[in-house]
Every structure is written in C-alpha cells, then in structure tokens.
Amino acid sequence: MVAGRSYWIAIWYGILFLGVLGLLSSLYWGRQTRWKNVDELLRAVGTITVSTGMLLLLNGVVSGLGQVLLVLALICFVVAFVLGRNAPPAPPAERDRLDDDEDPLPPAGA
C-alpha cells in the first residue's frame, strides 16, 4: 500500500494532462519547423507513458503493462536526450544576420 495513494493518483493525472498538452504543442510546432523537434515529441510521449504506467501501478490494474510502459518511457527520455544533444543549432534568422560592413554593436549614445 502506498501512503497517500489518492494524492499520488491525482498528481499523476496532472502529469498526464501536462504530457498531453506537451504532445499537442509539439505536434503543432513540429508542423511549423518541418519536424525538427523530434526530441520534444519523444519527451511528450515519455511523459504520457510514464504517467500512464504509474497510474496503472497505483490502481493495481495490469501491473505488468505498467512496468513495460515505465521502461518504454525511460527509452523515450534517453533517445530524446541523445537527439537533443546532437541537434544542430538553428541558423540565425535573416533579420538577425549582419552585413560584412555592419558593426555588431551600435556606437554608445546613438
């Protein structure tokens, strides 16, 4: 028996809700960036799977599936970490680029 089980269940439902919000925003942003945010998508999927796994374990329903979901979430988080570290930096926007003859900082008092 887990102390404060009903509180933990409420907390994990909140985390599940945040994971779903993260997945929806990652899907929206992925369409805008041509799916260069795979690490964010994997983090959202990991959050959803870990919260679902914990809810299954806390409710005592299909505990084997809950453990499999926790392992799957761990794999998602590790792959997201690796992909996020290997992602090339975004190129500067056209408005942020400097011409060759342009000073990087404006003169003081100008």
List keywords for this structure.
110 residues; mainly alpha; 3 helices
What's the arrangement of secondary structure elements?
Layout: H1 5-32, H2 38-59, H3 63-86
Characterise the protein shown here.
- With 110 residues, the chain is an all-alpha fold.
- It has one domain (5-86).
- Helices cover 67% and strands 0% of the residues.
- Helix 1 runs antiparallel to helix 2 (38-59).
- The longest helix is centred in the N-terminal third of the chain and has 28 residues, at 5-32.
- It is elongated, with a radius of gyration of 21 Å.
- It starts with a helix and ends in a 24-residue tail after the last helix.
- The model has no long low-confidence stretch (mean pLDDT 87).
Task: Provide a short characterization of the protein structure.
This protein is mainly α.
The ordered string of helix (H) and strand (E) elements is: HHH
Helix-strand category = mainly alpha
> What is the helix fraction of residues, given as a range?
55-70%
CA(first)-CA(last) distance: 69 Å
Inertia-based shape = elongated
How would a crystallographer describe the biggest sheet?
none
The overall pLDDT, averaged over residues, is 87
Rg from alpha-carbon coordinates: 21 Å
How many separate helices? 3
Please count the beta strands (DSSP E, at least 2 residues each). Answer: 0
Question: How many structural domains are formed by the residues?
Answer: 1
